[in-house]
């Protein structure tokens, strides 16, 4: 029996975590690891204890802020990082697996927190119709290792 690579295990977990999202527009999952151990997980949606967009705002999604973005949402990578820090887990030198490459705001947080590597499944720029992945460009410019996941997702039955 072949043992799965850690990249495959963590990306499959991120994809499955995305299914927990309450966002009506896009489901994103993230797994934060260090030394082959999971230190935190996250998915996008409003802060715990506030709203569930798929229940409270079924048709249109949550209200928009002045820039047209979800006014309630935390991104998956933000949720994973915040949970780790809240629980006194050191994230410096960790690796982040995420189903959608980080936006520029998340990239600044990732860099500031000392995360050394980001492995992503899909492009944020392609999803948003942007010319480039600003978040990935930022991370690369400042020395964070970026990799597009090219493995085999054998234990995922439905991609969102």
Describe the structure.
The chain has 6 helices and 5 strands, in the order αββααβαβααβ. 40% of the residues are buried. Helices cover 31% and strands 18% of the residues. With 160 residues, it is an alpha/beta fold.
Task: Write a short abstract of this structure.
Pfam families: dCMP_cyt_deam_1. This protein is of the alpha/beta class and 160 residues long.
Topology:
Blueprint: H1 6-18, E1 29-34, E2 37-43, H2 53-56, H3 76-86, E3 95-100, H4 104-112, E4 117-122, H5 124-128, H6 134-141, E5 145-148
Parallel strand pairs: 3-4, 4-5
Antiparallel strand pairs: 1-2, 1-3
Helix pairs in contact: 4-6
Kindly report the oligomeric state of this protein: single chain
Helix content: 25-40%
User: Per the principal axes of the C-alpha atoms, what is the gross shape?
Assistant: globular
* Tally of alpha and pi helices: 6
How many E-type strands? Answer: 5
Please indicate the percent range of residues in DSSP E strands (runs of 2 or more). Answer: 15-25%
* Biggest sheet features: 5 strands, mixed
| Pattern of helices and strands | HEEHHEHEHHE
Spatial arrangement of strands, main beta sheet:
2-1-3-4-5
In whole angstroms, the N-to-C terminal distance is 29 Å
- Uncertain stretches of 5 or more adjacent residues: none
**Whole-number mean pLDDT:** 88
Q: SS-based structural class?
A: alpha/beta
Evaluate the radius of gyration: 15 Å
């Amino acid at each position: 029996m072949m043992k799965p690579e850690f990249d495959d295990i963590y990306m499959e977990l991120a994809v499955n975590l995305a299914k927990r999202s309450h966002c009506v527009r896009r489901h994103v999952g993230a797994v934060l690891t260090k030394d082959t151990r999971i230190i935190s997980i996250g998915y996008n949606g409003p802060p715990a204890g506030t709203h569930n967009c798929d229940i409270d705002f079924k048709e249109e999604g949550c209200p928009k802020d002045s820039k047209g973005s979800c006014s309630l949402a935390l991104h998956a990578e933000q949720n994973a990082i915040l949970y780790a820090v809240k629980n006194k887990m050191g994230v410096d030198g960790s690796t982040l697996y995420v189903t959608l490459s980080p936006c520029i705001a998340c990239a600044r947080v990732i860099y500031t927190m000392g995360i050394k590597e980001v492995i992503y499944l899909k492009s944020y720029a392609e999803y948003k119709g942007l010319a480039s992945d600003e978040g990935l460009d930022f991370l690369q410019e400042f020395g964070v290792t970026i990799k597009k996941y090219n493995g085999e997702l054998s234990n995922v039955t439905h991609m969102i």
